[in-house]
Each structure stands twice: as structure tokens, then as C-alpha cells.
Amino acid sequence: MNHNGNGLPILPGATLGVLGGGQLGRMFAHAAQRMGYFTAVLDPDADSPAGRVSHHHIHTDYADVDGLARLAGLADAVTTEFENVPAPSLEKLSVARPVAPDAGAIAIAQDRIAEKAHFTRCGVACAPYAVIETAAQLAAVEDALLPGILKTARLGYDGKGQQRVSTRAELVDAWQAAGCVPCVLEKLLPLEFECSVIVARGRDGQLVHFPPQRNLHRDGILAVTEVHAQNMPKTVAQAAINSARSIATGLDYVGVLCVEFFALADGSLVVNEMAPRPHNSGHYTMEACDVSQFELQVRTLAGLPLAAPRQHSPAIMLNLLGDLWFTAGGDKPVAPRWSDVLALPGVHLHLYGKIEPRRGRKMGHLTLTGATLENVRAAASQAATVLGLPALSAADFA
């Protein structure tokens, strides 16, 4: 054991801790173990995907004082795999161990109101919006913001906590349906496509980034990510990279950060939200880049140098939801046709170790890589057909 307070770097042989036992924690644990670290996971689920592959699984609530003390005792540094972990828990851990990202960055990412204020401070454009915390603010909303999307300020992800509204009456009903909690109303803009950028920033301020990812969502959940040199106009790609770097630097951020953007019909770019962790749209980095987003998470946490990642293959990522287990109809899950999928060239299957498939639940992903973009697209289309996913059309691609 290599407990060294805030002394960095923390070298292989030490133990790295993670709050959260989902698939992102699992992939972090795999990356850390490959580099020679031991891992400790704190998660309330006895069957959590990360807990099942880690050296230590502390099976407690994220706010449990004893559990946090045990994690601090085992781990030389601690990260998180999702943004809704209580910020005070990270604050507690940071007294004893290096924590990255810190509680302040997590707290901002947990609250859309604080998040948008941060984007504005960094000079990064958002969609026009209004904060609605009171009936008076609701009444004062400008007509120009309609039609729009009402989003709860807290605990919204994968399209949850969001309602489209076209009229004032719909806005009032939607706010009441949300329980009159603090919300943000965003103006609906003419969207060309969605994209994201993943950056990693060290404690010394060193900052590296992956190429921007072009993303397709279905029902508010990421379905397809495509990453290659022609996936978007170069001016849009550079603007996204510059904005993501500004947002990370403005937070004095340490760790891996994903920033999601809307590219508009007029060629401009507005920021949507940030995720203070590795991201679904960055899973392709495990096969298509020489350093993955999870290895960079390990490096930022341990205070190791950050090598600028290099993408060596065009890539497409297909999200695998629990719905795939029910394509034959009926209530009993049936395993998808993995053998037929794995017969395709350049296929990399990742299943997350979740015991029970459920509709809408992220069960895994498929990354396709190849020598040429045409090869990758052909294999991705075949994989989608085999699995019963919606057909990939030319419109889905850049």
C-alpha cells in the first residue's frame, strides 16, 4: 500500500478508488488493473458491474460515513463514475486523499443552472434560456423562448426530466408536472447534428483531448457515435475542442470531462451539457485510439503524465440497450445473436456484466473499427441488421 497523502504521482501497485459501480466504474477498474493498480469500488448494489471485477467492493450508500472511511483507508486516490454522487461525500474523502474531479466541479455538473452560468463565464455559447425557480420567473418567461424544452435543474440524464413545450399553457403544466422544482427552459433551435468532445486535464494544468465525436440519440439516449476525420466540418470540430478546453480550464478541472454540443443549421455551435467523467460517446477510444478515455482517467487521478491520444482507426459505436433481449416479443429475455455479430470484421463486443436485461437499460456497446470508413460503415450496418437495431441510414452519418 502506497498511502502518500497528496503526494503525486501515485504509481502502479497502489490502490485507486471509485465511487459508483456501474459500467464506467467497471471500465475504469479494468484500465487501472491493466496498468498494475489495485481497485476499490464503493456502491450500494451488491451485484454492481464494477464491484464484481474490483479487488475491493465496499457495499454501502454513497453518503455512509463508515463506508467512506473504509474507502479512504483502502485507496490512495478516489474518482467517481457518475455525477449524481453526493458532492459532500467527495468533500469528506478529499480531506484524506486526492479526489478528482473535485466536489466543486461535480456540484456544478449536478445543477443545470450552475452549469449554464459556468459556460457563460467561460465565454461558451448556450441556447437562449430562462431559469424558472418561482411562479414569478415562470410568468416572466419571454415568448421568444417558445417552443422550448423544460429541463429539471437536477437529476436529469438520458432524456429524463425533460419536456417539450410549445405554448405558455404547456409550460405551466410541465412545470407543475415536474413538481415546481427549479428548472431551465431552453429555446428549441434548428439542429443539424449533435457532437461531443472528451478532454483530460491533469493537476498541473496539462490538457489533452480526443477528436470530436458525432452522436445520434434515439429517445434521449445515445444510440450511435461515429468518429473519423470527415465526421463534421473542421471549423465546427475546432470550435468544439476550444470550448471544451475553456470549460475544463475554467473549472480548474482534474480528470476526464465530456462536453456535449448542438451544431446548428447556420454552422454555429452551442453547448448542451457536461459530464464530469468518461462518457458513452468515448467508448470507441478503447479500440480506435492508442490511449483510452479510461486510461486517461487513471493517469489524471494518479498524477501521471498525459500523452496526447492518437486515433488510428475510423470507428462507430453502437449502444446496446436491454430492448435487444426482447426483440422476439414476449416477456422472457433471449440473448442476442452474438455469434453472428462476432463473425463481422472489426467488431469489439463489450457487455457490462448487468445480470438483468431491461428495456432502456444500457447493457453494453459494440465498437466497429477498420482500415477504411467504408468498411466500418458496412460492418456497422450489418451489425445493426443482425441485432434488430434500427437500420443505419446515410442521414445518420456525416
Automatic annotation (TrEMBL):
<comment type="similarity">
    <text>Belongs to the PurK/PurT family.</text>
</comment>
<keyword id="KW-0456">Lyase</keyword>
<protein>
    <recommendedName>
        <fullName>N5-carboxyaminoimidazole ribonucleotide synthase</fullName>
        <ecNumber>6.3.4.18</ecNumber>
    </recommendedName>
</protein>
<keyword id="KW-0547">Nucleotide-binding</keyword>
<dbReference type="GO" id="GO:0005524">
    <property type="term" value="F:ATP binding"/>
</dbReference>
<comment type="pathway">
    <text>Purine metabolism; IMP biosynthesis via de novo pathway; 5-amino-1-(5-phospho-D-ribosyl)imidazole-4-carboxylate from 5-amino-1-(5-phospho-D-ribosyl)imidazole (N5-CAIR route): step 1/2.</text>
</comment>
<feature type="binding site">
    <location>
        <position position="112"/>
    </location>
    <ligand>
        <name>ATP</name>
    </ligand>
</feature>
<keyword id="KW-0067">ATP-binding</keyword>
<feature type="binding site">
    <location>
        <position position="151"/>
    </location>
    <ligand>
        <name>ATP</name>
    </ligand>
</feature>
<dbReference type="InterPro" id="IPR003135">
    <property type="entry name" value="ATP-grasp_carboxylate-amine"/>
</dbReference>
<feature type="domain" description="ATP-grasp">
    <location>
        <begin position="116"/>
        <end position="302"/>
    </location>
</feature>
<dbReference type="GO" id="GO:0004638">
    <property type="term" value="F:phosphoribosylaminoimidazole carboxylase activity"/>
</dbReference>
<feature type="binding site">
    <location>
        <begin position="272"/>
        <end position="273"/>
    </location>
    <ligand>
        <name>ATP</name>
    </ligand>
</feature>
<dbReference type="GO" id="GO:0034028">
    <property type="term" value="F:5-(carboxyamino)imidazole ribonucleotide synthase activity"/>
</dbReference>
<feature type="binding site">
    <location>
        <begin position="186"/>
        <end position="189"/>
    </location>
    <ligand>
        <name>ATP</name>
    </ligand>
</feature>
<dbReference type="GO" id="GO:0005829">
    <property type="term" value="C:cytosol"/>
</dbReference>
<dbReference type="GO" id="GO:0046872">
    <property type="term" value="F:metal ion binding"/>
</dbReference>
<dbReference type="GO" id="GO:0006189">
    <property type="term" value="P:'de novo' IMP biosynthetic process"/>
</dbReference>
<feature type="binding site">
    <location>
        <position position="217"/>
    </location>
    <ligand>
        <name>ATP</name>
    </ligand>
</feature>
<dbReference type="InterPro" id="IPR054350">
    <property type="entry name" value="PurT/PurK_preATP-grasp"/>
</dbReference>
<dbReference type="InterPro" id="IPR005875">
    <property type="entry name" value="PurK"/>
</dbReference>
<feature type="binding site">
    <location>
        <position position="194"/>
    </location>
    <ligand>
        <name>ATP</name>
    </ligand>
</feature>
<dbReference type="Pfam" id="PF22660">
    <property type="entry name" value="RS_preATP-grasp-like"/>
</dbReference>
<comment type="function">
    <text>Catalyzes the ATP-dependent conversion of 5-aminoimidazole ribonucleotide (AIR) and HCO(3)(-) to N5-carboxyaminoimidazole ribonucleotide (N5-CAIR).</text>
</comment>
<dbReference type="InterPro" id="IPR016185">
    <property type="entry name" value="PreATP-grasp_dom_sf"/>
</dbReference>
<dbReference type="Pfam" id="PF02222">
    <property type="entry name" value="ATP-grasp"/>
</dbReference>
<dbReference type="InterPro" id="IPR011761">
    <property type="entry name" value="ATP-grasp"/>
</dbReference>
<dbReference type="InterPro" id="IPR013815">
    <property type="entry name" value="ATP_grasp_subdomain_1"/>
</dbReference>
<comment type="function">
    <text>Catalyzes the ATP-dependent conversion of 5-aminoimidazole ribonucleotide (AIR) and HCO(3)- to N5-carboxyaminoimidazole ribonucleotide (N5-CAIR).</text>
</comment>
<feature type="binding site">
    <location>
        <begin position="156"/>
        <end position="162"/>
    </location>
    <ligand>
        <name>ATP</name>
    </ligand>
</feature>
<dbReference type="InterPro" id="IPR040686">
    <property type="entry name" value="PurK_C"/>
</dbReference>
<dbReference type="InterPro" id="IPR011054">
    <property type="entry name" value="Rudment_hybrid_motif"/>
</dbReference>
<keyword id="KW-0436">Ligase</keyword>
<comment type="subunit">
    <text>Homodimer.</text>
</comment>
<keyword id="KW-0658">Purine biosynthesis</keyword>
<dbReference type="Pfam" id="PF17769">
    <property type="entry name" value="PurK_C"/>
</dbReference>
